[in-house]
Amino acid sequence: MTPLQLLFLGVFGLAAIWFGWRVFRTKSMVRSALSLLAAMVALGGMFLALDAEFLGVLQIMMMAGEMSIMAFFMMMYMMDPGGMSSMNMTHQQRPAAAVGIGAGVLVLALALLTPWPPAQALAPSATQQNHDLGIELMTRSMMIFETAGTSILVAMIAAVATALAYPQQPD
Amino acid sequence: MALTICLSIAAVLFGIGLYGVISQTNLVMIMMGVELMLAAAMLNLVAFWRLLHPHTYALQLFVLVVMTVMALEAAVGFALATQRFRSRGSVEVEEAADLKENA
Fold first, then answer.
1. Is residue B62, in this structure, part of any structural domain at all?
2. Where are the membrane-spanning stretches (chain B) (predicted)?
């Protein structure tokens, strides 16, 4: 990895953490959806800095769509999507903070204390990556890829079936 | 060095996501926390692919699967929110005590 890549990795990483934190620290729900979008785009930037061009661009495009849909649902379902009144949207703050910090420290300790093998200096070129990923998708991992597609179909049917209005039963 | 940076950032993101899942009262905000945790997992996978096994494309495939899981989670979660909003008029988990037995 070049020093420039390391620099971008750190900058995008700090941006992802900052925006991830902002998601739960703002009163405005639309703003927190946009913060999550910014965190995901920063993550996509990290993927690009890690030479995973296809995944980085895919991440940015997918998350842009998903988070704008999320912002729409927020406006539909929230009592106070703009955060105009100072409604409290949180509960059990202290246990939540304790569990979050505890889990984060645990994962951090795992990441820092594990003796990782030495890092590989070179990654395949973007063209080579796309070619090899395509070969992987269509040969060894084909069943997994197909399963992912089928689960999308199942989730679509399940989502529509769940969201349908049903006639109210008289008590 | 790069691996340490990536794994540390992913650990912090995971912690923030877990905090959000536990502390938020709105279903959509809880889903945002889950998305953040899945994103941290994705960052770990990309870092492992690039820095440990750059020629094992099953890792990139795993990232694609996690991305699919994120989309599915959003779709099914919004469907549940829609049904909940239809029948009860709110998606606050504080008001979902009727899902509990004998409540």
1. yes
2. 27-49, 61-81
Please report whether residue B68 resides in a domain: yes
Is A158 a domain residue?
A: yes
Option in B2, B12, B42 nearest A104 (CB): B12
Of B43, B41, B44, B64, the closest CA to residue A58 belongs to B64
Token pair 């842009």: residue: A64
pTM for this model (two decimals) = 0.90
Query: In order along chain A (171 residues), what is the average pLDDT of each group of 10 residues?
Result: 91 95 85 91 94 93 88 77 69 89 94 90 90 93 93 94 80 60
pLDDT 10s digits, B49-95: 999 999 999 999 999 999 999 999 999 999 998 888 888 888 888 88
What the block records as the tokens of B94 is 């504080």
Interface of B with A in 60-99 (CB under 8 A): 60-61, 63-65, 67-68, 70-72, 74-76, 78-83, 85-86, 90-92, 94
Q: How many domains does chain B have?
A: 1
Please tell me the distance in Å from B102's CA to the nearest CA on chain A: 18
Quick one: which of B49, B55, B59 has its CA closest to B3? B49
Q: Which domain holds residue A137?
A: 126-164
Distance of alpha carbon B56 from alpha carbon A19, whole angstroms: 31
